[in-house]
Design goal:
This protein is mainly alpha-helical. It is 46% helix and 0% strand. It is elongated and about 70 Å long. The two termini are 51 Å apart.
Length: 85
């Protein structure tokens, strides 16, 4: 009985999806533009992040800039961000 109900429900959903109008690309882009964050919110992605400490230190010294070190992990841990704190 449940297979019959499930099949009927699937057929109903499939029929309703086919009859629904699909919005045009321009209409979707217009709706997305209203909620899309501005490009200034992603300025942090332009920072040249380094995963190798030696390369980061070499570049910081060459540019006479300070070096920010970001570590993750709990106390007495190896710094893995996936471990418990």
């Amino acid at each position: 009985m449940s297979r019959l109900v499930l099949t009927a429900l699937f057929a109903f959903v499939a029929a309703s999806v086919q009859s629904a109008e699909i919005p045009e690309r321009e209409a979707l882009l217009k709706k997305a533009a209203a909620i899309r964050p501005p490009a200034t919110d992603f300025v942090w992605q332009q920072i040249p992040w380094h995963t190798d400490a030696a390369d980061a230190l070499k570049e910081a010294r060459a540019e006479s800039r300070p070096l920010l070190v970001w570590l993750a992990g709990g106390r007495d841990r190896d710094g893995s961000p996936l471990e418990r704190c």
